[in-house]
Every structure is written in structure tokens, then in C-alpha cells.
Amino acid sequence: MALDLTAGRGGHAVAIAERLGPQGVLVAVDRDRGNLEHVSGRMARVFGGDPPPVESLETATPGPRTPLGRGPAVVLMHGNFAAAPASLERCGLAADLALADLGVASTHLDQAERGFSFRFDGPLDMRLDPTRGPTAADLVAALPEAELAEAIRRLGEEPLARRIARKIAQRRESAPICTTFELVDVVREAYGLRAHHSRMHPATRTFMALRIAVNDELGALEALLGEVRRAAVAVAGSAQRSSWLRRGARIALISFHSLEDRLVKRAFAAMSRDGLLRLGQSRPLIADDLERDRNPRSRSARLRIATVGDPSNPQTARTAAHDP
Ligand SMILES: C[S@@+](CC[C@H](N)C(=O)[O-])C[C@H]1O[C@@H](n2cnc3c(N)ncnc32)[C@H](O)[C@@H]1O
User: Fold this and answer.
1) Helix or strand or coil: residue 246?
2) Which CATH architecture has domain 113-214?
3) Largest CA distance in the chain
4) Which of 3, 4, 5, 6 to mutate to test the pocket of ligand 1 (most atoms within 8 A of CB)?
5) What is the pLDDT of residue 253?
6) What is the pLDDT of residue 196?
7) pLDDT less than 50: residues of the chain
8) Nearest CA to ligand 1 atom 14
């Protein structure tokens, strides 16, 4: 079974499904139900058969899944990938490959009504799952100035974070900031003349910080890495304990932000030291020139790969025995 934790528009999912063939099972997860509905139609067009239904991670139940016409059985699960491991274990599914391609899909950035982009005017939303949780406008309205400054500085690495937070606090006293262009306007004001000399759009870092905060992207990644550890401990400790990852499963995580990559790097290194994972390579894989030209977003992508279980390490069993 292969697991795509961030199905997006299905590019990776279709490529994996092609390699799995009719005997395999592909589980694809996304927080955005619209993306999963798109992947459902795409799978049916590529492999034939009925479009697979979109299930909820919270309510998915065990049971046989019907293979597509010429492809594997495809299970589409809506929800936060942090909740996927519990759901998979409830359904008795264990993965040989788990992939997460973190962040937003390019279609999120291209849809004005989702509010992710400073290039289009739209509601200041930024939720990957538009059915739940506070929007970016809610955060901008409610966070105290110091917390806003800290979020913009830490998550966006924005040097003018305090100035921007102050301008937001001043502006919202007279009227709420509800749209992307209203926020762009405030950031431009904070930048002043610097906006003309800035290489990137002055709102780039502020928008990125808010998006990461709205979706608690680092929290979700930390939770996922915790689940990888739990599974690796279970795999190392006892053949009987069921786990969402099989011994020998590959974990592949693609991050686009140094904060994400740092979390992955440290978690993988700690699990490798404890004999729970075998690292693919010490440095992350990056896109080559050809890929960068074809897909400019790949410029900041970092891929780290690890294998669950390290039978050559005698510490594995001991660590597993002591880990709760
Ligand atoms: C970079 S795109 C993935 C693109 C995909 N690999 C493809 O080939 O089309 C990231 C996707 O992950 C989803 N996502 C981000 N964080 C998530 C989370 N915590 N749980 C589930 N899905 C998430 C987003 O909604 C988005 O569709």
C-alpha cells in the first residue's frame, strides 16, 4: 500500500498508482476536499472505472476497496494528514511508502477566492480546508500586536515584522482588514520607500507567515513526525503490533521552507540515532536545472527520504522496549 499524504491535484498520486498496478492500494489524503474530488475524476479518466468516493479521515471504516479499471484500488481521505495514521490503523491499512509534498498547491495560489495570493484581490481566507477553522482575516483581527509580529518574523522570516504588525494594529482600529489587497496595502505602507527596492513583492513573507499560521502547518508536520516515530517504534518492538507503516517502508518528505526542512532533518536524525530509521542521504535532494526550468516552484523544494526500521542496528529493539 502506498500513501500520498498531500494529494494536491494528483500529479504524484497518478504516478504512484501507475507503478502500483491492479494489485496495489493507494491512499491519498488532502485537507482540501476540492482537490480530492479533482483527483477522483483524474484517476477514473486515467485508469477507467468509477471515480473513487471521497471519504472522511475521521469516519473511514475498514473494508475491501474496489480496484479501478486498469489501476490499483484508490482510497481518497479528506482531512489533516496528522490524523491519517490513526485512521489507517483503524482500517487495518499499513503503508510501504508514505509521501508528503508539503505546503499549498499552485491552484490554491491561482484562485483569488481562496485568499492565498497577494496578486489577486479576494477574501483574506488562506484555509486549506475552507470548511473549518479561523481564516487569515480572523487572525489579523484577533491576534495581539506582539503575537502578530512574532508570527510574521518567525514563520515569514520578515525583517520588518514589527513595523507591519504595528500598521495592522493601527489599521484595524478604524476598519477590519478583510481582503488580500487591504492587507497588501497595509504591508506596502509599512515598507514605505523600501517597497521600490525590494526584489520580491513586499507582501510575500507576510502572506507566507499567515498561511502557515492559519493552517498550523508546522504543528501538523510535527504531529506527523511524531506518528512516524510511534510507528517505527512499534515496527521495531513487536511483530504483532499493527502500525500504519510497515518495516522497510520509505518515508519521503518534500518541504519548501527552512523551518519545515529543519523539523524533518532533526526528527529523522533523532530516529536514526535511536536505530528506528535508516537515512537515505545526509543532505536533502534538490531539483536539477532541467526541473527548475520546467517547474520554477521546485527551486526551494528539499526532499528527505528514510526507511523504517534498521535491522542492522542492535539498539533498535532496546529503544523500542523503552519507548512508551
Ligand atoms: C504541494 S501540494 C501537493 C501537490 C501534489 N504532490 C501533486 O502532485 O499535485 C500540497 C497539498 O497538500 C495539502 N496539505 C497541506 N497540508 C496538509 C495537511 N496537514 N494535511 C493534508 N493535506 C495537506 C494541500 O491542501 C495541498 O493540496
Assistant:
1) strand
2) Orthogonal Bundle (1.10)
3) 65
4) 6
5) 98
6) 83
7) 315-324
8) 6
Q: What separation in Å is there between the alpha carbon of 93 and the centre of ligand 1?
A: 21
pTM score, whole prediction: 0.93
Place of cell 510575500: 204
Q: What is the whole-number distance in angstroms between the Cα of residue 179 and the centre of ligand 1? A: 24
Q: How far is CA 109 from CA 104, 126, 183, in A?
A: 8, 9, 16
Degrees to nearest 5, angle at CA 78 with 72 and 83? 100
Q: Which residues make up the CATH 1.10.150.170 domain(s) of the chain?
A: 113-214
The pLDDT, as a whole number, for residue 66 is 79
Q: Which CATH class is domain 2-105+217-322?
A: alpha beta
Ligand 1 mutation target, pool 31, 78, 300, most atoms within 8 A of CB: 31
Q: What angle do CA 12, 18, 23 make, to 5 degrees?
A: 125
> What are the residues facing 203 on neighbouring strands?
none
Mutation choice for ligand 1 from 38, 128, 257, 302, CB with most ligand atoms inside 8 A? 128
Give the closest residue (by CA) to ligand 1 atom 3: 8
The confidence score (pLDDT) of residue 223 equals 98
Other CB atoms within 10 A of residue 89 CB = 17
* d(C-alpha 244, C-alpha 1), whole Å: 10
Ligand 1, residues at Cβ distance < 6 Å: 6, 8-12, 29-32, 35, 80-81, 101, 103-105, 128, 220
pLDDT digits (tens, 9 = 90+) for 258-315: 999 999 999 999 999 999 999 988 899 999 999 999 988 899 999 999 999 865 655 4
